[in-house]
Each structure stands twice: as structure tokens, then as C-alpha cells.
Request: fold
Amino acid sequence: MMEAILSRSQALARGSRHEVSQWDRSVWRQWSVRLVLLFLLLLPIEGILRKWLLNPWQQPLILLRDPVVLALLVTHIMDNRSCLPRWLLLWMFAVAGLLLFGAIQIIAGDASLAAFLYGLRITMLFIPVSFVMRDVFLIEDWRRLIQLCCWLSLPMAVLVIWQYHAPVSALINRGVSDDPEAYVFQVVRGVVRPYGVFPFVTPQSAFCVMLAALFLAAWDRRKLWTIPIAPLTIGTASLVVMTVLSGSRTVFFGVAMVGIIYGLGGLIFAGPVRMAGRLTGMGLTAAILAVTVSLLFPNALSDMAARQQEAFISEGSALHRAVMILSPFPPDGLAPDLVGQGLGAGSNAGGFLIKGARGFTLSEYEVARVLQEAGLLVGSLMLAFRGAVIVWGLGRAAYIAYWNGSAASFSLIGAVGMQFFIFQLSGQNQIASIGWFSCGLLFCCLRFSDRNDPAGEPDHSLGADHRARMAVRAVSASRTER
Reply:
């Protein structure tokens, strides 16, 4: 720290304002990157503290990442104090608009002030993380983040194995409830659905889907991003273990969607020759890992088949459940109105603030709950913003894939789509963090795959279809210049 202060003092002594500006920018950027990494690390740390170390005082710990996000906003504002980013101004305008809308809800609809403040926090606070990641990350920071996720997944997989084999009543399988006899979700009777380091099964599922997309993108661009193969292999194997032992249809569906969107996007825009080889290798690797895990855990697949049969009887097919989740009209019959029931009223914490009991007071599903909370007008705008992010990302990913043959961003689009519309983004504390962090990963992947970034240079070993396309584009460009 003293060396940094001396460097700044020396630059001031030389009278070089440009050098001082560059020094300040570098320091603020570095702090922003560190805060983003801390935000990621606090996701598993929160669960560890709430479940095992500080369980009697666990409730306030849901706000553990809030100071980090506020500090991240401050560092980014200081980094751009001469000209604030447009997205930050729009975000501030949206927060002000929701404050006004919340006042209307409280006055006209008798909504809860405490639940509204929590709803504003879970709806808006974590959005800046995505955009700051896009603005401040350099390729070395991106590489460090991917490797951190790889190494994080290893102890998480070990914990999942322990939880899977432990009795349902074991301390390692408890949630955040103070009641040691509280119900723990099970695949079949006597076999838990492992929560990992998270307080509940849903964040564990969302985190696995996010890792699947990130690791797939890293494999796609491994050479250009210079990702070491050892941590990436360890991370992928750990993810396969967590997926197979999850006992969750949502995890299997999410990972499948990530792979399908990656494959389709690559085949359509990156070229079939290259993608055929990539998809063949991915399929063979997945098959080998799946067989290995099934040999190590022979009961996992049969337990999952039994779980699927039970879920089919109680909830219908996976397709029926997906349609029900995406439907704006909840099965409980409470149709959304114009003003809404109050922002945050349908979240877990909002339900606790209103009725003193945990659980969803409105629909369990994201699309219906957003419309119930915020009303038809504002709720539709909130969902439209998420949809616009997906559509914009698809457009950019298609352009990038056409230019340099990279389909990496398509995998993260699959993950972000799941987080935005399938998981409880506005209903659960950690899902909101994981969802917007996944969006930040998408923004970074698009940036580092872009033609204007050195990390996005085309790989000329991608195959005949890609080389031919590049040759045609070069000829076309030369004719345009003439």
C-alpha cells in the first residue's frame, strides 16, 4: 500500500496528471475486481455460516453480500467519476421509479413497507454486479475467475458426496432452520437431495447450472483464454458428481438446456464442421464421466429414476411443469392486477416480514410472482428487461460465432435464461445473487469473445467451413475498400 501511495505522490511531484489518472483508474479497477471475487466467495460462505457456524443468528446473514455490492458501486463510480456509465444512470432512474411505484402500492394497495424495501433490494441491488464485471474485467481477471470456480467446485463436490451418504438427520444435512427435526428434501426416502454449502436445495441447483455453462464456455475457448487444463478438468469432474448426486430434475434440465443451446447456436452460427467435432468430444467425455460416476455411486441413477416417477405422479411431466413455471397465470388462481400486491410480498423473506412465517405468500413460480407483486404494467416491464438481455445476448453471440467460430456465449445464455425465468430470481436471496452473477459471466464471455478484444481473435484451426467463411469475408472487405 505504501508503495502505491509513493507512486501516486511521485506522479503528482512530476506534475503529470495523466499518470495520476492512470494510477487511480488502475487502483479502482483492481478493487472492483477483488470485490466481484469476494461477492462470489460469499455465496458458499453465507451457507456455511448460516447452517453450521452461526446458525442461531443466521437470519441477518442474508444481507452478507449487500455491503460488498455497495462498495462495488462506490469503486466503480470513483473509477468513472468524470463520466458515469449510461447503464448506471439508467439503473438509478429505475430505482427511483420503483421507489415512487412502491409508495403508490403502499398507499393504494396497503402493501407492507418492510416487504417492499426487501423486494426493492432483491430486485435491483445485484443488477450492477453484472455490468461492473463487464466494465472492469481484463482477460487475466476472467482467467482467474474461471480457475477460482474450478477449485471451488472440488470441495463442494466432496461435501455433496458426504451429504448423499449421510443419514437425513445428520448435522451435515441440516438447513438453516433452528429445528433439527425440520424436513429435509429427499430424492427417495432416506436419501437426501444434497444442499452442498447452500442453505437450501434451489441455490445449489442454480449454482450447478451456472458452473456448467461457465465450464463449457471455458472448454470452447480454452486455448485462446489459456485456461490450464488441470483445474478445468477437476472442475468439470466435480460438477458431474454434483449433478448426478443432486436428485434434482431442475439441475438435469438446466444442464441439458445449457448443452442444447450451446450445440444449436454453434451448429447454426459457428459452422457444422467445427461444432460436430466439439459436440462429439463433449458427448464422449460426458458419457465417460457419467459411467464413471455411476460405477462409483451405483444407486444414484436408480434413485433419480424413482424420484422422476414420484414427481410425475404428483406434478406431471417435466414439460408440463416447465409450462406451468413459465405461465403468467398461477395454478392457485390469484390473477395479477394492475397495481400488484406489493414488491417483495411473494418472496420468502417478504412472507416472513408480512406473516411471520417462511414460505411464498404468492405464487412459487417466478413469472407469475413478478406479475402478482408488481402488477401487470411494472411487472411486464421487469420481465421485458430480462427478455431484452437474453435477446441482445443471442444477437451478440450469433455475430461473434459467425465471425470467429466461438459458441461459448450460447452456453451462458442458456444458464441466464434458466436463472431469469425458471429459478426464483426475485423470490430467494441467493438465487438473485447467482442469477445476476451469471448475467455478468455472460457479459464477460461476450466481451472476451468479441472481434475487438485480443482474447476474441479467430482460431484458424477451427475447420474448413470457418476458414472458407473468413476467406469470403476478406475478399468482400477488399472489394468494398476498392
Summary: Confidence is low (pLDDT under 50) at residues 1-6, 460-482. The longest strand covers residues 186-188. Strands lie at 186-188, 191-192.
